[in-house]
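Sample entry copied in:
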Amino acid sequence: MHNRSDQFSKNLLRDGLSLVSAAETEVEVLAATQKIDVYSVPDPARHAERAGMGLLGELSAEPSLFEPFHRTPSLRLIRQCLRKQLTWHHELERRARSAAGSIAPDEDVDAPSQPGVDFPALVVIGPGRPETVLDAYRCEPAQPGVYHAVPGLAMRVVVLAELPRTRATLLLRLLGSGRLLREALGDLAALPDDAWEKSIAKPLLVHFRLGRQEPAIDEEDDVSAEIRAWFEDYERNLRAEERKEGRAEEAARAVLIALRARGIAVPDVARERILAEKNPETLERWLERAVVAASLAEVLDDPS
């Protein structure tokens, strides 16, 4: 997956799941040419946080492969995902045997001495209802928009268009496009500023420039106007913060140059302190002292 929407989907899932899991993207699968989009292993110490993440938290309650699709996946694509799931389980078993110091061959995986490895679940996410997939794997509805395949497959199919428009499904609905994405963006904008969903989604939405390019159905659409204003305001604040950090870095380097010009040695610890300082007033005060000081202490220490 290489386009912006696909990259956004993987990053959104990874960053959301990282709140309660050890989540990776582009996980290498040995003996295969494919990569798992996102692999998540739940952190037992974060059960309470995961419980507050709605549907995504429920889906990540066990080791899981997450495979988001921008279009409704076909049976062929699902088979590719199942192949990744099986290959990855084989790799996890190999790693467990290696960690346990076992020298048993791969085919002897049922030997009593072999360490047990949970079979990872597969979570397939797509915008529409994949009828051929649901029929082929006897998927049954578990809740609105979520289907479970026969137990042996450990596969869940999430249909974004069928998810209820609630906060519990919001982060997943942001993986949609068109009206689905517009509605999700409107719901996101309506959340409090300190909502965890905003902390995860906003930087990624701006980075991948999604949402602003979603066409409005009506030029007077209040939700679309609010979303555009939200993006513009967020980008302005982000650019202002970047400029502020750039000025602070320049001021810090000016302090170091002044100290070097006066022949004052700057240990690594002091150098890191100067470069890490973001308060412009502090940096200005240090620079004024640096041009006349005889020692580093006179620059960094407040006069007694």
